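Work package 3, deliverable 3.1, input record:
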Amino acid sequence: MTNPMEFKLDTRLWSNKARNLNPYVPGEQPKHDNLCKLNTNENPFPPSAKVAEAISAALADQAQALRLYPAPESDDLRQALANAYQLDINQVFVGNGSDEVLALVFASFFMKERPLLAPDISYSFYPVYADTFGVELVNIPLREDFSIETNDYRQPCSGIIIANPNAPTGIILSLDAISKLANEHPNAVIVIDEAYIDFAKPESGEAVSAVSLINEHDNLLVTQTFSKSRSLAGLRVGMAFGNPSLIEALTRMKNSFNSYPLDRLAQAGALASVQDTAYFKQVCEQVIELREQLIEQLTSLGFDVLPSQANFVFARPAQGNASEVAQQLREQGIIVRYFSQPRIDEYLRITVGTAEQNQRLITALTELGA
Amino acid sequence: MTNPMEFKLDTRLWSNKARNLNPYVPGEQPKHDNLCKLNTNENPFPPSAKVAEAISAALADQAQALRLYPAPESDDLRQALANAYQLDINQVFVGNGSDEVLALVFASFFMKERPLLAPDISYSFYPVYADTFGVELVNIPLREDFSIETNDYRQPCSGIIIANPNAPTGIILSLDAISKLANEHPNAVIVIDEAYIDFAKPESGEAVSAVSLINEHDNLLVTQTFSKSRSLAGLRVGMAFGNPSLIEALTRMKNSFNSYPLDRLAQAGALASVQDTAYFKQVCEQVIELREQLIEQLTSLGFDVLPSQANFVFARPAQGNASEVAQQLREQGIIVRYFSQPRIDEYLRITVGTAEQNQRLITALTELGA
């Protein structure tokens, strides 16, 4: 019973939908401990200590015992998020990771006759969702420098989805540009996927998150996640912010798939994380500082590094091809992500690690002469 | 920011899919502590103490810290389930509660031209999924005594879904009948939703779960949940057992919606629960005993009680209508479930509670003269 049984795949009983899927392939989650894992953009720092405290308390609390169903709409967590982001609870939706939130977004807003627009280089789950929900996806090429030009999006559409900062480039789009998109497409839902926004460094203290715009634009939806800046990839919590009618659509869609996506411990842990603002800010600042150092070091080694505002950098080795460099790093126990895809196949996406991990990477690259 | 903002619902930006949904309405999850909550079929006993131990260990373990993504396919948990049920890991799928598993089942196997067949009285999420995935659902009436007659299912279909024991009746279908369905519909997927199967009392030691049949029928899929018999409704873990080609379809569908549905703590807790067989058996036996007592007491009060093999009973009060009785119980802090639906609107679905809770119910009903 320990080895997977050999079997001949038989799709006879599958729906056409199942047969035609192109599932998402997540970054590898290797089990070895001694690896320097810089491939899936996890935070190098642990979550707030308050998270484990809150989870332990929820575990111990009789009235909150695991035998009972969780709050189906995660009210306490949503209220805490509303407080933290100066919103109303009706402007907040939460789900089982931002991936689940995005799936519900596609079903709620993009299953329409007009196509969805997205950058050609972006989060690789978007085309998967488009397939899953039968949504026509039109890829808008990034400019030569990998930037997004809003004028390229002037065409009829059901919606636009943009990761901001974009992945895997790390490049950020300004709030002015986002406002422009929302204004120019009043009948489309503009989704800004801010998985990495908390690592963006505001210039002269200005806001970088489009959450600050949602009261101005009823067609703007912003998604975020606890997986990156809050160091809780293992807890599966994501959220969306938008006007109450958009949130209501997501809620109904959720309750037509799965009523209780967030377990009791995830709700308790995420709530504690939201409330520990000081720790959150400190971790983000540390990651930003480490990113800046990493960019400097990679640049010194001759890498072409895109101007990242995320917790990863997208960098082209001066010598040797990126695929080979990734392989050589792997042999030394350092895992980075390589995408075998036109336009970006000369780049590596490298998660910002701890100072020690980053140094280990730089030392290895120096020795490789990459 | 504490009171929900008033808003006028505007569905202009919604997909038709979103506009036409009829979301599932879960049983109420009241927040008051002193309620006698017999409305959502939770287990009256806590989960195995090993669950909290395992979760605490996962919380404390640096290599398993929450900052890292969980195992996307929950390999360790699936292997533990395979061991416990004498299956191969490739015959096991897990998801975020059996509700999520069922959603993926509908998308994988029932999105076809032929209709899906299900009993007219059954789990009320089935018609919701049918709506969500555009599946034509043909309701096959239960017989007068609320039993399922397999001959009624002799018609072309993409699949058949049956909750066994059925909800809200609690009545069980024999394995012979299930084998017959699987044999008579070789091109349809037969889904047996065994949310409550562990509370079924085998006659003369024979198996009651259709898991024992999956090696015989490649078109048989069995779903189960940790929410009932394992007292983990708050942890959101469900599973499906079937031949590897069916499991592969579910896996691909999952990876087209959400790659990491089970967080680290849910995986760790569920694994510990599976491994504590002794506690699991003991709790199931206790609930079965309490159910038998409750049936006896309700019958003595003149209730017509269906022959339940689940952790709830479906009972018709001798006097007064069921809706009124439910309301009167609520005024005394006892919550049971009432379905305002043809054929069953004279019944109450009452979860088996602890001995104390059941006594509180019986006392209240006696005083009401219901």
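Chain B touches chain A through 109 residues (CB under 8 Å).
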